[in-house]
Amino acid sequence: MRRMVIVAAMAMMTSVAMADDIEDAHRQALAGRDSYWNCLAQQYSQGSNNKMSGQNFTSLIASVCPSERQNFRVSLVDYLTMQFPSVEAGAHLTTANNAIELAQKDIVTAFIKRRER
């Protein structure tokens, strides 16, 4: 009986530690997202981009902020891997790449709408 209590207590402590690790990974993924978005927003707001075509701005956005983009990708994949360990790693990478693509698309859409005014 005593052994069962010890095993149960250790399992609960492990569960709490894993939950803390997942929460930390989630915070890091959010920080990575915010850093990437802030970098994209800086590109959006640069006055020198106002004369660019939508196509040129799209190309620019695809190439800027490489370290922020990679940090976001890695931190999001890490979080998803912890949160959903039974899901294939390639699926997590696809999700992260889709999130990056959507961020870029949102910035480009805002840029094009601003130009149309």
Helix-strand pattern = HHHH
Spatial gap, N to C terminus: 74 Å
Radius of gyration: 20 Å
What spatial form do the alpha-carbon principal axes imply?
A: elongated
Unreliable segments of 5+ consecutive residues: none
How much helix, percentage-wise, in residues?
A: over 70%
The tally of strands reads 0
Main beta sheet: none
Helix count, DSSP H or I runs of 4 or more residues: 4
**How much of the residues is beta strand, in percent?**
under 5%
Structural class: mainly alpha
- Number of structurally distinct domains: 1
The overall average pLDDT, rounded, is 87
Explain this structure.
The chain is built from four helices and no strands. The chain is mainly alpha-helical and 117 residues long. The protein has one domain. α2 (54-63) packs antiparallel against α4. The longest helix is centred in the first third of the chain and has 44 residues, at 2-45. The radius of gyration is 20 Å and the shape is elongated. The mean pLDDT is 87.
Draw up the topology in text:
Layout: H1 2-45, H2 54-63, H3 66-83, H4 89-116
Helix pairs in contact: 1-3, 1-4, 2-4, 3-4
Give descriptors for this structure.
117 residues; mainly alpha
Could you provide a short overview of the structure?
The protein is built from four helices and no strands. The chain has 117 residues and is mainly α. It starts with a helix and ends with a helix.
